[in-house]
Design brief:
The complex is a heterodimer of chains A (339) and B (309). With 339 residues, chain A is of the alpha/beta class. Chain A is built from ten helices and twelve strands. In chain A, the strands form three sheets. Chain A has a seven-stranded parallel β-sheet. A three-stranded mixed β-sheet of chain A has the order 3-4-7. In chain A, strands 2-5 form a two-stranded parallel sheet. In chain A, strand 8, helix 7 and strand 9 form a beta-alpha-beta unit. Chain A is globular. With 309 residues, chain B is of the alpha/beta class. Chain B has a single domain, classed as TIM Barrel (Alpha-Beta Barrel). In chain B, a hairpin with a 6-residue loop joins strand 3 and strand 4. Classes of the chains: A alpha/beta (339), B alpha/beta (309). Chains A and B meet through strand 3, strand 4 and strand 7 of A and helix 1, strand 3 and helix 10 of B.
Chain lengths: 339, 309
């Protein structure tokens, strides 16, 4: 696979504008108009990402209501239970698994084909992984969480990925934000990932975020057949400039572990905190990247992204953060003599 | 005969969720109305202690994070093994309190007269464990100061309260005897002379190896999460305290079978030689939608009534 040092990429969803949410909720507006609006938003996001200068793009998940709910609504055997809080005034709609899960069809196919037909840059398609779908759902049917998770991997995610790859997807990010919720279940996270991609040829990333401590994922993830980790770091890092260990306290622990295990996979380095409105100065982004390169000693293994999806920020803030991310990456490349 | 009560933060109703999302101008009034409604629900379902449902708290620790001196607001951090997050308090200086945190953040004015009021508070070790210490030289010193803060807060409200429940998910994880002894001393400083019934509620961990230590803690009631750890993991011992049995799964919408819960209560009584037991949820109900929480409280009431019969 072609090396792409310090490539900038998006990682998740972008907030939908109020007019779109209102339109999509309006029962008097036809599905045809709603679909046109979704297409418009997908295209708008895509072009904004490309214009900002991201190297690897998608559409900010413009056509999905939310990463988890969108998927479970399309899986037979899971029904919606209601909303619960994830933090402060942020909520998500949880599903209850009440019978054996069944694949109803490739639920990301139409959006992927639309992006493929319109993108000028490389595409990375995000999908929600089996472990997270299981962990965020109430299991009222399966005897164990293991049975539930592995059934989701084999019966839902694998056929979905197979259909997407058949349609041309060659870089898929499997979102597993729940991966480190239960440190004792890391083997299940790895097994479910490997079961999901079994026999399928594509580049696979795994996105994990808001872990107490990434050291929990080792050594288990050495068995994971992913090519890239997309991880959150900026949330826990200082806002001081510099490439010393003490300045980059959000990064040093994981990166050192990564190096100690002699990992050859890529890291999608979270350099933008998605939970604050302050825009990271480009020099701090540069230093976060340079620090990572210093520790892993290979710019080819570093990709750059926000910590997570930016949907909790306004669109203006999100695009300003992404713009600085691209410019910070340019500064880092310049410092490394890559441009 | 058993007693029942609920713990911690209660899930928000759908109208309240919408109001918090749209920054509704009437939000404060809505919180108040919902609290009145939820107090009535607890009373209707014969809860023996009634608590503030804390639906206006951003997380279990936020009133402390926002109001303690010496504390700054840190990163959004995972709340134990849940898809729920809290703002981590960063300890940047010696911590202190005005003593008005509970007074200002618990709805004492909404409880009807003659209600037996319960308040939920994190124990000093859990407060320490959920924080990021950038100031204190030793763990013991910070835990001790959290203990002093809690005591100062409790002294302000103790005359209005009938049960103080220390929710202790971090403490429940502790396995070392020496550390437990140190925390026990801090708890002793917190509870001595309060003259209010106290409960140490050990959420979320297997305490089958440490139960002998916990029953020595200076509280009247020990709460055990029997969803996380099944009863058959425990060796028979005699507990000379009341036992609060977390048998109602607060993290799953699946409804418990009434018969099974009654059988488990019977087994617990026999195993620990206790007469006095209460039935509580395994955690707080905020991990399931409100409609399911309500069904589970109704089930608790039915079990209580059947036990009485």
């Amino acid at each position: 696979m072609k090396k792409f040092p310090i490539a900038t990429q998006e990682i998740g969803s972008i907030r939908k504008p109020k007019w779109l949410v209102k339109l999509l909720q309006d029962k008097d507006i036809s599905e045809k108009i709603k679909q046109t609006a979704r297409d418009y938003m997908s295209l708008l996001n895509l072009k904004m990402f490309e214009d900002i200068g991201l190297d690897i793009v998608y559409d900010g998940e413009a056509k999905r209501v939310e990463m988890y709910e969108y998927s479970i609504r399309r899986i037979e055997g899971i029904t919606l239970a209601g909303r619960i809080r994830s933090w402060d005034n942020k909520y998500y709609n949880k599903g209850r698994c009440i019978k054996k899960v069944k694949y109803k069809g490739p639920y990301h196919l139409d959006e992927f084909v639309f992006i493929k037909n319109n993108a000028r840059k490389m595409i990375k398609l995000p999908i929600t992984g089996a472990y997270t779908l299981a962990d965020w759902s109430y299991n009222e049917f399966y005897k164990s969480k293991e049975d539930f998770t592995i059934d989701l991997s084999r019966k839902i995610i694998r056929p979905l990925i197979r259909d997407l790859v058949k349609a041309g997807a060659d870089f898929i990010q499997i979102d597993e934000p729940a991966a480190t919720t239960h440190p004792d279940e890391m083997d299940l996270v790895v097994d479910s990932f490997n079961e999901s991609i079994k026999g399928i040829n594509a580049k696979f990333g795994v996105h994990i975020c808001y872990s107490g401590d990434y050291s929990d994922i080792y050594p288990h993830v050495l068995e994971m057949k992913n090519h890239q980790y997309e991880l959150e770091f900026a949330n826990r890092d200082s806002w001081s400039k510099g490439v010393q260990h003490a300045k980059r306290n959000g990064y040093n622990s994981f990166l050192k572990t990564f190096r100690e295990y002699g990992e050859k996979k890529e890291i999608g380095l979270g350099v933008v905190d998605v939970h604050v409105d302050e825009i990271e100065p480009i020099e701090i982004i540069r230093d976060r990247i340079l620090y990572a390169v210093k520790i892993v000693d290979d710019p080819n293994s570093i990709h750059v992204n926000p910590d997570c999806g930016l949907r909790t920020r306004s669109r203006e803030t999100s695009f300003a953060k992404l713009k600085n991310m691209v410019n910070g990456a340019k500064l880092a490349k310049k410092a490394l003599g890559l441009i | 005969m058993i007693s029942i009560w609920i713990s911690g933060i209660y899930p928000r109703s759908e109208p309240l969720i919408e109001a918090t999302r749209t920054h509704d101008k009437t939000l404060q009034q809505l919180f108040k109305n919902e609290k009145i409604k939820l107090i009535k629900i607890q009373m209707k379902n014969k809860c023996d202690y009634i608590s503030d449902p804390l639906i206006d708290w951003d997380d279990h620790i936020r009133p402390f994070t926002d109001n303690l001196k010496g504390v700054e607001k840190g990163a959004l951090t995972r709340y134990y093994e849940n898809n729920t997050f809290y703002r981590q308090p960063i300890i940047t200086n010696k911590i202190s309190t005005s003593g008005k945190i509970f007074k200002n953040n618990i709805c004492f004015n909404l409880f009807p007269k003659r209600t037996k009021i319960k308040i939920d508070v994190l124990d000093p070790f859990t407060l320490y464990d959920l924080s990021l210490n950038e100031f204190y030289k030793s763990e013991e010193e910070l835990i001790g100061d959290f203990g002093k803060i809690i005591r100062k807060e409790l002294l302000q409200i103790k005359d209005n309260v009938d049960l103080i429940q220390f929710n202790a998910p971090s403490l429940a994880k502790v396995q070392e005897k020496e550390q437990l002894n140190m925390i026990k001393k801090v708890m002793n400083n917190v509870t001595k002379g309060l003259n209010v019934t106290t409960c140490l509620n050990l959420w979320g961990s297997d305490i089958s190896n440490t139960i002998n230590e916990f029953i020595e803690f200076p509280v009247d009631i020990i709460g055990i999460d029997f969803v996380t750890t099944k009863i058959d993991k425990y060796d028979p011992i005699t507990i000379n305290k009341m036992l609060a049995c977390g048998l109602i799964d607060a993290k799953n919408t699946k409804m418990e079978e009434k018969k099974q819960i009654i059988q488990k209560l019977k087994a617990i009584r026999k195993l620990f030689g206790v007469n006095s037991v209460s039935l509580i949820p395994s955690w707080d109900f905020e991990f399931i939608p409100e409609t399911f929480a309500k069904k589970k409280i109704e089930l608790m009431k039915l079990i209580k009534e059947e036990q009485r019969g």
